[in-house]
Write a structure and sequence with these properties.
Blueprint lengths: L1 H31 L15 E7 L6 H8 L7 E7 L5 H6 L6 E5 L6 H10 L8 E4 L10 H9 L5 E8 L7 H23 L11 E4 H7 L7 H11 L4 E11 L5 H27 L5 H11 L4 H18 L4 H26 L3 H13 L1 H13 L16
Parallel strand pairs: 1-2, 1-4, 2-3, 5-7
Antiparallel strand pairs: 4-6, 5-6
Helix pairs in contact: 1-6, 1-11, 1-12, 6-12, 6-13, 8-9, 9-10, 9-14, 12-13
Length: 395
């Protein structure tokens, strides 16, 4: 009996340690290593299609369109993939600009991915690059210029930063979500790119070759960005991360939306990873890249590992006194990793370390929902999109 418990504790704790060692490593990388881009200047200005999927974005659509139509790049079009049933469509119609196209659907087939795929059918035939922007974004004026410069350095796609700070002062939950999401954007993604691990497309503020996107299309399910990442990586396409190209966006400001968003992301990652794991492992990628993609996609399973580790660790702590020092050390190490994660993220966006600790608490609230999300990802053939409420305020 004790041997089985020891094996379960060792296996579950090893799985957890894979993820808890990363914040320490990535924090060190951020301190010592900075990627130097070539800084190529535009020698030509190819046509760019900017696609904005919008579903009931009445509070944000005017803001993002004002930003996009103010780009300093001279050769682009804007396609709004509008699935709205509220006043979004009417607000879009107020913009009279020859660069703006509106593609309206009366259904939500394929959710966001279906809207983007449909919009691709209306892209200018001369379009060389496509940029996807979420409707809650506030893009800088030089966004297209920077993205085109970067992709012309020899990449197939470039992911910029989705900076979740627009409404971070709204309440404590918004602050906590801002910290949780900023870690992946500002610490993990750039660190992985610096050391040559695969970069993840995160659904917005990325540029990709138009022909490549038309060839692959988006999988019409939730988690479409992660699924596209897996297919591109498997086939050897190069994706860069640009930590210096940021677009501000909103974060959930209530617990219900926070949980729904967390479940959607985790469910989509699990389902896509389980479907593609065989293809990934049989690809020509380096083993480290394969392992990182698979382990990243299975991150929600850390919840199961935590439960097993806690139960077996408690049993061994009381039944086998010799294990106590190791159990105490590993437990403290794992807990400290979460705190390091949130503090490093909070420091990046200038929020108090108090909110970093509150973020860690919110993250633990997500734990049972990670179990739920991973079960859905394993069992269901497709997910359900639940819109995250946007307030459209700038604080």
């Amino acid at each position: 009996m004790d041997l089985i418990v020891v094996a379960l504790y060792a296996a579950s704790t090893a799985f957890i340690l894979y993820f808890t060692l990363r914040p320490y490593l990535f924090s060190v990388i951020q301190f010592f290593k900075k990627y130097r881009f070539k800084g190529l200047k535009l020698v030509r200005v190819p046509k760019v299609s900017v696609i904005i999927p919008a579903y009931n974005e009445e509070s944000t659509i005017e803001r993002v369109l004002r930003g996009v139509l103010s780009f300093d790049y001279p050769n682009f079009e804007v396609i709004v993939a509008d699935d709205s049933t509220d006043g979004t469509t009417q607000k879009i119609s107020a913009f009279k600009d020859p660069r703006l196209k509106v593609v309206h659907r009366n259904d939500r087939k394929g959710w966001k991915a279906g809207a983007v795929n449909n919009a691709m059918n209306y892209a200018d035939p001369s379009s060389e690059y496509t940029v996807i922007l979420d409707a809650d974004s506030i893009p800088p004026q030089d966004l297209l210029t920077k993205l085109v410069e970067r992709i012309q350095e020899g990449y197939d796609a470039v992911q910029g930063v989705q900076l979740p700070v627009i409404n971070s002062d709204y309440n404590r939950i918004a602050k906590a979500n801002s910290i949780i999401q900023s870690y992946y954007q500002l610490v993990e993604q750039p660190s992985k790119f610096y050391i040559g691990l695969p970069v993840t497309l995160t659904g917005s503020n990325f540029i990709i070759k138009t022909d490549l996107l038309k060839k692959y299309r988006l999988n019409e399910d939730i988690g479409e960005d992660w699924e596209l990442t897996l297919r591109l990586a498997k086939d050897g396409h190069r994706i860069a991360y640009a930590p210096d190209i940021a677009v501000k966006c909103e974060v959930p400001f209530n617990l219900k939306d926070s949980i729904n968003q967390y479940v959607r992301w985790n469910e989509g990652m699990v389902r896509s990873t389980l479907r593609k794991v065989s293809d990934i492992m049989q690809s020509d990628m380096p083993f480290a890249s394969k392992a990182d993609l698979v382990m990243t996609g299975l991150t929600p399973f850390i919840t199961y590992a935590l439960i097993i580790s806690m139960v077996t660790g408690a049993y061994l702590y009381f039944s086998q006194p010799g294990f106590r020092p190791m159990i105490i050390f590993l437990t403290a190490f794992i807990m400290l990793s979460g705190i390091v994660t949130m503090i490093s993220s909070a420091s990046k966006i200038g929020l108090s370390y108090f909110y970093a600790l509150f973020s860690e608490l919110l993250y633990f609230i997500f734990v049972p929902f990670a179990v739920y999300a991973s079960l859905r990802g394993m069992v269901l053939r497709e997910g359900t999109f639940i819109r995250t409420t946007k307030i459209g305020e700038i604080n």
